[in-house]
Design goal:
mainly beta, 7-stranded antiparallel β-sheet, 8-stranded mixed β-sheet, 53 strands, single chain, 14% helix, Jelly Rolls, Rossmann fold
Length: 849
């Protein structure tokens, strides 16, 4: 600092007191930066075109970067009268000082911010100017004040007072700041802090910051490329690309310009495509010096895969169907409503030496590349056709094409399930994945008596010469997410859903055994293994920590951290503890779950409870971020219980098969039973204040639960399904999803399921206030699912609200709309579980129309 500050320490960081029924929360600690000196412009004794002289108002409006507000800041404490005073020697310059602190609201609140100073100042909230005081007083005793009304949502607000000291002014700069309200209860929701203090978790921490999103490793294992998404305040987005030297762990390149770099099949070069003078251009980059060389021009549009020897590319080129220009459309199949469904894609080989583009497949059906053989002599491709006579309503043909003479070997013709992942390193086998019914039910576990869950992905190995398929995961409970067959050790690496974790396993092909690899994350989000080296890189997050990047040495399974961009934010946060809690259901199953506690949890108090579930085909994973950030609910004073009812993958085929032809049966009973047992074992729960929330299938579950029980005081359904029949026929994927969820059942042959399990037909049994949320252009679960339930409950006189979000599909992704959507959730729970409807009424004031 270029000045000295008079530090007057106090024992309390903030003080609240009452005077004339007004309650005060005085700022007793802040960060101070400055001075910033400003010279008077020449000819300042004249007037401008508006007839104004250069005066304090002009000086005060001087634009200064928000970075200067907090640059070189030091902590300062108020004196006994509440002022922050700075020792300042008079100069010939006007001088700015910046007083910074944060206000964090744990719940919705309204208050006034009062700033008092003998100097002129501007007040900034989140780096935006909101008001000022241009008058100057000659003594601190005569200091004048300015107030600004704050409407505070549960998040952090950055406050800056930009204080101006006039040239040759001998009065020391002094500022006093306080929050004012008429209710003591509001002060309890507010915390004044500095950047050095711990603070509650807020929605901004969920939406903003730098998050690693994708990582890949060079073929030789020497370098890694990490892509991170960056969201700044107000939703401004960008991408950062970092390249690491894995030997040192150091970053050798950081770029905010993402050219779409990808690794070459060999070595450590990268490639990207761009538009040049002759059309699409392919450029190779030497990562050691970032030197570029153009290797091809006039490339066709479409995605492509490199051959392992880097001599040719396999393109996927789309033939676009003619558009119907008169606005009248003939829908030929249930899938025909989707944009681009009539387009067809075909495979072409592009020889990099000659520039010849050779079509490999021709016809009516699209062809998709599955794998290229290690010797580059063959490819595996698949075609499919619609088959609405039986589930899963499509048939696949998988072929091996020998590129040397264009001979086709049809491996499977018109099969219903299964696909090819890759060749084995020696090219003699194929790694396959698919549901338990794939390849004539060879992967179905004997414990499953009926139809298995086709979303419970299994792994198979196919011997090309013998034409034999072998299931390798029959006794392996986790569900397969991704696979990689390493030519370094000839083992297969699987990313799997295992209960509410995403883990990595090594399958030893010789011993035919699985070995779990312990990674520094609960949920692995991205994973890449080097083609020619025993190294891998990954991204993962945990139940109480956001995404980090790491390197793994596969020879000893030791990991090395690479990037942890959110650590400075996490170090500031107050996060409550998380513990696992399971119960034994009346069906005899251990139903897994976990509990989130508020940071300042006191077991002697009573807390409202929020229950979250999905109940569909996948468990609620142990992620830190997400659309439903459980730590955020906990920071608002709720205990949060997340459970994994039966029907989900990751617990074995018998468990996941319970999802089939159930639509809430058993699952709802488990949720109700779990909530009751949880309350029995945790007496700090206020049983009159229990809320529940779910989305998509979980939104259906929310509606369905309210027809089965009255234990909930508030319910929220996002993109929920109210009528299984209308969802089955109207949603883009309703009928195909039901190929698993309602296998062999249809509205005409199983009305007990399609009608009996639909919440709409039991709407008269609902007693709980329900908030229905829906994207207005949801193609997965059409908005009509919420509209018809809303209409039914309105006719029945039940407490219900419907909020639609314009322009949003199944997920709410727009920054501002997501904030409003989240706030609607928070406000609904505050209204019914915390007896505070002020936020809801602020968002949705009562209307007479």
């Amino acid at each position: 600092m270029r000045y000295s500050i008079l530090f007057l320490f106090v024992f309390s960081y903030f003080t609240s007191f009452a005077q004339d029924s007004v309650k005060y929360l005085a700022v007793q600690s802040c960060m101070v930066s400055g001075p910033v000196f400003l010279q008077k412009p020449v000819l300042s004794d004249t007037v401008n075109i508006f007839g104004n002289q250069y005066d304090v108002k002009q000086i005060l409006k001087t634009k200064i970067s928000p970075d200067a507000f907090r640059g070189d800041a030091v902590a300062m404490y108020a004196d006994s009268s509440g002022y922050f005073s700075i020792r300042h020697s008079p100069t010939d310059f006007s001088t700015f000082y910046f007083f910074n602190f944060d206000i964090t609201a744990s719940a919705f609140a309204k208050a006034k911010l009062k700033v008092t100073s003998p100097q002129a100042f501007e007040l900034y909230v989140d780096d935006e100017r909101v008001t000022d005081k241009s008058s100057i007083q000659k003594s601190i005793e005569k200091a004048a004040s300015t107030e600004w009304s704050l409407t505070l949502e549960p998040r952090k607000y950055r406050i800056t007072v930009k204080c101006l000291l006039s040239a040759n002014d001998s009065l020391q700069p002094a500022v006093k700041m306080a929050l004012e309200t008429t209710q003591s209860s509001i002060l309890a929701k507010l915390k004044i802090s500095t950047a050095q203090d711990k603070r509650p978790f807020t929605l901004n921490d969920v939406l903003e910051g730098e998050r690693p999103s994708n990582i890949s490793v060079s073929a030789d294992g020497k370098f890694a490329m990490l892509r991170s998404s960056v969201v700044l305040p107000k939703g401004r987005r960008s991408t950062i690309v970092k390249i690491f030297n894995l030997a040192t762990g150091k970053i050798i390149l950081t770029s905010s310009e993402d050219k779409g770099w990808r690794w070459m099949p060999k070595g450590n070069r990268m490639y990207y495509t761009s538009t040049g003078a002759q059309g699409r251009r392919l450029t190779i980059v030497d990562v050691t010096n970032m030197q570029e060389s153009i290797v091809a021009e006039s490339l066709p549009d479409g995605g492509f895969n490199w051959s392992p020897d880097e001599r040719f590319l396999i393109f996927n080129i789309t033939d676009r169907a003619p558009e119907n220009k008169d606005g009248v459309n003939q829908i030929l199949s249930p899938q025909g409503r989707q944009a681009g469904w009539r387009n067809r894609s075909f495979l072409h080989r592009y020889d990099l030496q000659t520039g010849v583009l050779q079509p490999l497949v021709f016809g009516y059906r699209s062809a998709h590349l599955s794998a290229i053989s290690p010797d580059t002599k063959s490819i595996i491709f698949s075609t499919s056709k619609e088959n609405y006579s039986e589930r899963p309503f499509s048939l696949h043909t998988i072929c091996m094409l020998r590129l040397t003479d264009m001979k086709v070997d049809t491996l499977w013709h018109d099969i219903k399930f299964g696909n090819v992942v890759c060749f084995s390193p020696d090219g003699k086998q194929l790694l396959l994945t698919g549901g338990p019914e794939s390849f004539d039910n060879i992967g179905k576990c004997e414990k499953v008596e009926g139809i298995p869950n086709s979303y419970d992905t299994q792994a198979y190995i196919y011997d090309i010469a013998k034409r034999q398929v072998k299931p390798i995961t029959l006794k392996f409970n986790p569900s397969i997410d991704r696979s990689f067959w390493s030519k370094v050790d000839n083992n297969i690496y699987f990313l799997v859903t295992e209960e509410d974790y995403t883990n990595c396993y090594r399958y030893h092909t010789k011993k035919e055994t699985f070995e779990k690899i312990a990674f520094p994350a609960d949920v692995i989000q991205s994973f890449s293994i080097a083609e020619d080296a025993p190294f891998a890189v990954g991204i993962g997050q945990s139940v109480s920590y956001p995404s980090v990047a790491f390197k793994v040495d596969l020879r000893n399974d030791k990991f090395i951290p690479l990037d942890d961009p959110m650590k400075p934010i996490i170090d500031q946060l107050e996060l409550g503890r998380v513990k696992d809690w399971s119960f034994r259901s009346s069906f005899g199953d251990d139903i897994k779950g976990r509990v989130y506690f508020p940071y300042h949890f006191e077991k002697e108090k009573e807390y409202p409870l929020i229950v979250y579930y999905y109940g569909g085909t996948t468990p609620v994973s142990r992620t830190f971020d997400g659309r439903y950030p459980f730590h955020l609910y906990a920071s608002m004073g709720y205990v949060v219980y997340v459970l994994q009812p039966s029907g989900t993958t990751g617990f074995g085929q018998e468990f996941s098969a319970r999802h089939v032809n159930a639509w809430g049966e058993y699952t709802a009973d488990e949720i109700i039973e779990g909530v009751k047992q949880f309350c029995e074992e945790h007496p700090f729960i206020d049983r009159s204040k229990i809320g529940c929330i779910g989305a998509s299938y979980g939104g259906f579950m929310t509606m369905y639960l309210q027809t089965r029980t009255d234990i909930f005081s508030a319910a929220i359904s996002h993109a929920g399904i109210s009528d299984i029949t209308s969802y089955w026929g109207e949603g883009y994927w309703g009928y195909s999803y039901n190929a698993a969820a309602a296998a062999e059942s249809y509205p005409w042959n199983n009305t007990d399921l399609f009608v009996g399990q639909s919440p709409l037909f039991s709407a008269d049994k609902v007693k709980t206030p329900i908030l229905l949320l829906h994207g207005a252009v949801d193609t997965n679960v059409p908005v009509g699912e919420s509209i018809q339930m809303f209409t039914a409950l309105k006719i029945l006189g039940k407490p219900v609200e419907l909020i639609t979000v314009d322009g949003e599909d199944h997920h709410i992704t727009d920054y501002d709309k997501r904030i409003r959507w989240n706030n609607s959730i928070f406000a609904w729970f505050a209204k019914w579980l915390q007896n505070d409807d002020s936020w809801w009424n602020e968002l949705y004031p009562k209307k007479n129309y």
